[in-house]
Amino acid sequence: MSETQEPTFFNKEPFYITILDENEYNINKLDWNSPNYVHNLISQPFIKTVLVTSENFFDYIGKTFNANENNILVTETIGEEPLYNYQMIYMDKINNNNKVNHFATMINIKSDVIQGKAVLIKNYVATLNNEIKFDNMDSNALHKMIKNRGFNTLVLWDDESKKWHEEEIYGSVEIYAKKFFEDEQYKTCEIAFLKHNLNILYTISDYGESDVCGTLLNCKVEKVLIFTMLTNEFRGDITKEEIKKIIKLSTVLTPPFKPENKWFEEEKDEHGRTIIKNKYKILDNVYQENFTHDHS
């Protein structure tokens, strides 16, 4: 679907959501070294997918949580990728006497302990307009989201290929970096760029390339590795397309590369929905403002 189409409010087709029923399952019993770990994790009987429509979605959520004036429902973003985000709906601790939901607590990127049921949804979030709609949060989407907690995409550059490319890694960045830099000592820096978090690892060489990272680095580099963190504990994915936009923008924006205040202000669209101003929307809009020839 083109991002230049008019924003839509309701899904025309039914879509799947995932229900995490109340459970006391001890997820630590599963062997996380097993190649089938994610499959085994999401195959538990308390996880089920339900087909809903735009018309009955909110009623279904209300019935799932037995919603009333004493219940406070929380919606948290638990994962992001370009054009999509994953959210979890759960009941706040206030007036909540349900048992701890260990699975829901595990996939929450914040420190909240979740009690009772939880609902997972996936949203399509356009970046160059305000279109938002539900996407299928089924077993495939859940598998991908869980897998991405361990397997992350980072971006690499070296003076041999002289190109940015992506690599999916599992586990410690430090172990991977040791191999990538061939045991050579590398430098590190962490930069906030708009709403992106950038962790840059690089080696300097007199025979290296300058301007590889725009104005993010002021030196000649031989190799560069860039990864991103969602939180202090969870690593995220970053693509070479994002990095290329960031590097180009670094040549026209002024450090410390903070977003304008408008990106922090809550704003409603024409349907009364809160506009999701995530890092992808901010990056694409700022890039368009600076590098689209017909912008005023």
What's the topology here?
Elements: E1 15-20, H1 37-42, E2 47-52, H2 57-64, E3 73-81, E4 84-91, H3 102-107, E5 118-125, E6 132-135, H4 139-150, E7 151-158, E8 164-170, H5 173-180, E9 187-193, E10 196-209, E11 221-229, E12 235-236, H6 240-250, H7 279-291
Antiparallel strand pairs: 1-2, 1-5, 3-4, 4-5, 5-6, 7-8, 7-11, 9-10, 10-11, 11-12
Helix pairs in contact: 6-7
Shape: globular
Our count of helices gives 7
Question: How does the major sheet shape up?
Answer: 6 strands, antiparallel
**Total tally of structural domains:** 2
Notes on the protein architecture:
There is one protein chain. Helix 6 packs across helix 7. The strands form 2 sheets. Strands 1, 2, 3, 4, 5 and 6 form a 6-stranded antiparallel beta sheet that branches. Strands 7, 8, 9, 10, 11 and 12 form a 6-stranded antiparallel beta sheet that branches. Helices cover 22% and strands 30% of the residues. The chain has helices at residues 37-42, 57-64, 102-107, 139-150, 173-180, 240-250, 279-291, and strands spanning 15-20, 47-52, 73-81, 84-91, 118-125, 132-135, 151-158, 164-170, 187-193, 196-209, 221-229, 235-236. The two termini are 26 Å apart. It contains 7 helices and 12 strands. With 296 residues, it is an alpha+beta fold. The chain has 2 domains: 15-137, no CATH class; 150-250, no CATH class.
Key features of this structure:
7 helices, 2 domains, alpha+beta, six-stranded antiparallel β-sheet, disordered N terminus, 296 residues
In short:
This protein is α+β, with helices and mostly antiparallel strands.
